Amino acid sequence: MKKFTVTQLLTAILIVMTGFSLFSCNNDGPDIPPVKLEDVNGNYKGRLITIQGSVKTEKIKDFKVKKDTITFAEFPIQEIVRTVIKDPAKADEAVKTIGKVKYNIKYTSSINTTSNVIELSLAPKTLEIRIPVDGVLKKTEVALASKQKGFYVGMDESLRFALVAEKITVDGTVLGSYEAINYNFPFCVKN
């Protein structure tokens, strides 16, 4: 019969313990629950980056997300009005006169289980505004589009999406020399 020495016994115990410790490393890290479609619902506050040509502005906007709609109680119209009215003072006065413009964006959602995100396919409709120009209300239609999907990331409960105002029509006439307005919401969080 073979006898084990103390050093051989300690070496065997050390090898077994090392194996158990390496095995336990495989399960380290937080458990991230899978996203559900209703996780996207809520009130959000986020950074809006608006780009038109070489002009870039940033502001904070609030909006709500429900089952299939993103709702802005006050959609940002400053760039649209400044495109229609070239005089900055008159454009700012028109924005004040118009006040808050409510706008809804319909969307459909699906879960991307590989990335653990909710993908939003946005379907914005035409935004209609009556812009006062020299005492006359100009019917302005803004064709908004979404060139890419939006995303709700479950890990940090954030929402990301973008819109572009591709075309503006004033009283039936399309503005000819128009630079598209990009509305980027790169990081919005629930309130």
UniProtKB/TrEMBL annotation:
What Pfam families does UniProt report for this protein, alphabetically? DUF4840
Q: Which organism is it from?
A: Chryseobacterium ureilyticum
Q: Which domain of life is it from?
A: Bacteria
Signal peptide (residue range): 1-23
- Return the InterPro entries for the record: DUF4840
Taxonomic classification: Bacteria, Pseudomonadati, Bacteroidota, Flavobacteriia, Flavobacteriales
The name on file for this protein is DUF4840 domain-containing protein
Q: Which UniProt keywords apply?
A: Signal
